[in-house]
Write a structure and sequence with these properties.
- The protein is mainly beta.
- The protein folds into two domains: about 140 residues, Jelly Rolls (Sandwich); about 110 residues, Jelly Rolls, CATH 2.60.120.
- Helices cover about 0% and strands about 45% of the residues.
- It is built from one helix and 25 strands.
- Strand 7 and strand 8 form a beta hairpin.
């Protein structure tokens, strides 16, 4: 849903934060896996978190559960994700939603490295390891049954829509696909493309997965590439632009169940005018 306005009542206090793609990995007692945290309670998020998990060949994140729903989107390589024994093959930008309390296991497929972006519907996610006592079923590239709690969105089958001229988007997870508390997808910007200046009713995480992006937030300009991630708090006006000669692509995540945005005048993003709905940027 997109609406047009020039004002907002959001009492915005947080400012944006940029987390670079090669930030220090989190400590994890599993060989061959690196977790990098982009958005969480540390930067002021209240309802979601995002990051990447890099798997070396033959590594494995064994069966575990979370207290909140999780989405796993494959960025490179292929993954074997098992949910209560049902093992699915996921290709680049395929996405699986796993509800809270459902046991799952993640590993790279075909003996090659794999990188996945994760998103939780919590700013302080936790992991509880559980026993592997499930009946194994190789589901390959098939979709889950209607009675299964997990949901898979295949990138190749996702509808493509042009959000603004030269900016093409695919919704990969949302309430209409079974996700709880988070939604998001993939966007590719042709050279010269941009989104209009806008804000959201939710915090947002935007990870640049290819190319180079310019991010404007109330007069601040950031240049992002290589899994660099922008955390944009609720109510902050912002826009993304591709000033390069190559395509730029992103994975975006909202701390809400369905995408929405409110468009405002471009001068608020460039800093030519002060946004009345926020506290301003120092």
């Amino acid at each position: 849903m997109t609406t047009q306005t020039n004002k907002t009542a959001f009492p915005v206090e947080l400012r944006e934060r940029i987390v670079f793609g090669q930030c220090a990995p989190l400590p994890i007692p599993l060989r061959g896996i690196e977790l990098r945290e982009f958005v969480s309670r540390e930067c002021g998020a209240t309802a979601f978190s995002t990051g990447t998990a890099t798997f070396q060949p033959k590594s494995e994140l064994p069966y575990h559960t979370h207290h909140c729903s999780e989405v796993i989107a494959i960025l490179s390589g292929e993954a074997a994700v098992a949910v209560e024994g049902r093992t699915y093959r996921l290709a680049p930008y395929d996405c699986i939603h796993i509800p809270a309390g459902i046991a799952h296991r993640v590993a790279p497929a075909a003996g090659a490295p794999m990188v996945a972006l994760y998103a939780f519907a919590s700013a302080i996610p936790a992991r509880d390891f559980v026993n592997d006592d499930f009946r194994v079923a190789d589901c390959g590239y098939r979709q889950p049954q209607q009675t299964d709690p997990e949901y898979i969105r295949r990138f190749a089958a996702a509808e493509v829509y042009e959000l603004s001229e030269g900016a093409f988007f695919r919704d990969l997870f949302a309430a209409r696909f079974g996700a709880v508390g988070i939604c998001g997808g993939y966007g590719v910007f042709r050279p010269g493309a941009s989104l209009p200046c806008h804000f959201h009713k939710f915090d947002e995480s935007i990870t640049i997965v290819s190319g180079k992006a310019v991010c404007l937030v109330e007069g601040n300009r950031h240049e992002l590439s290589g899994f660099d991630t922008a955390f944009v708090p609720v109510g902050r006006v912002h826009r993304f632009l591709n000033h390069s000669k190559e395509d730029m692509a992103m994975i975006w995540v909202y701390a809400g169940s369905e995408p929405e945005r409110t468009i405002v005048d471009a001068s608020y993003c460039s800093g030519e005018a002060q946004w009345p709905g926020g506290t301003g940027i120092d």
